[in-house]
Amino acid sequence: MNGIVLIIDDEKKICSLLSRIIELEGFKTLQANTGKEGINLLKNNDVSIVISDVKLPDVNGVALVKDIKLLKPYAEVINLTAYGTIADGVLAIKNGAFDYLVKGDDNEKIIPLLYRAMEKANLQQRIFELDKKVNSKHSFATIIGQSKALIEAVDLAKRVSKTDTTVLLLGETGTGKEVFAQSIHQESPRAAKPFIALNCSGFSPELLESELFGYKAGAFTGANKDKKGLLEEANGGTLFLDEIGEMNLDLQAKLLRVLENQSFIKVGDTLTQQVNVRVLAATNKDLKVEAAEGKFRSDLYYRLSVFTITLPPLRERKADIPALAAHYLSEFSIKINRPDLKMTDNILNAFQQYSWKGNIRELKNVIERLAILSDGAQLNNAALPPDFFEFTPQENKFNLNQIEKQHIQKVLIHTKGNKTETSRLLGIGLTTLYRKIEEYGIGEL
Known about the structure:
five-stranded parallel β-sheet; Rossmann fold; Helicase, Ruva Protein, domain 3; 3 domains
């Protein structure tokens, strides 16, 4: 059994007696004679159980339960009293106490009760720590980067997270729109409620409607029983609609109703249902242009774009690449049990020159590939995808030196860094190859 038992009683003899009995069972104990002293011990120790007298010199032990639970939500409290009343017992349980005992009855009951309370406290603590880990995974602190455009986007997201305002996240594929949506939810008053994500491009229009709104039994062939839609699943929380630009016009009209009055009708039903859902949406399309061309409802666009946040593509925040690369390398090193893996300057230099059409998602995938295929402790350029040097920035696509540099890099990768073979395949002298490698700053493979 983990944790410590804190005994709070103004009678020192009772404290000492209880402490001896409990320690004989293998538990560690702490003693306090006032509520204030008990709270101080609670703050500074890993306490799992509090056994508190009801009548303390500075506070009522029943009222103290609330303070204890606020400070240590997973701790369990047992109230002891010399003069038990039903009202006090009910209030103690209502405040969060595990149990309420009358002194004199506690000799036989306290130890079995203590074991049950400790079992619950240990479970509660594991859940509490798991929740903390999950919550921290989706907080704004996990968004990596210090570029101006990213900091501005994070600042906007933090400001709007405290409200119930609908947010439209704009950006290319792979820029982290769902990460932002999860962080907004996690920092909102709805954090304890569900976060439900739906990719609108992953379903046919009919299936998307069923997923979103649910359906009644008999609504269509195969609908054997009522099914909750994601709107109902997200009730009280947040619904994230990714790739909303792919939603058809008929379904857009139904979504508009949800945004305007928080009501919807299940497929095959006639009754209107109410929900309390915050909607976050994301797209890589220009919805204003789509609306002008009749491909997206203008009224829905203006309802969604009350608050827009544009996420910058990775090519516009290249200063963040080293930190992102280090983060993902650490993640994959743990996953494949190779903690010795290290990034090289040559790899980072190649990353800085690449245009990252797939943005952060592509960077993550490339690092995973390198982590798996690199034989030594250092990531190997030769393990880069074959087309890694084929995508060039727009401003350099007609630059002869840039094209020549990339061609040499590709051939070096093909020959695994063999300069003699590379010069033969290129049809140039070995001395010329070394000069060009130095001139273009091409690193060793």
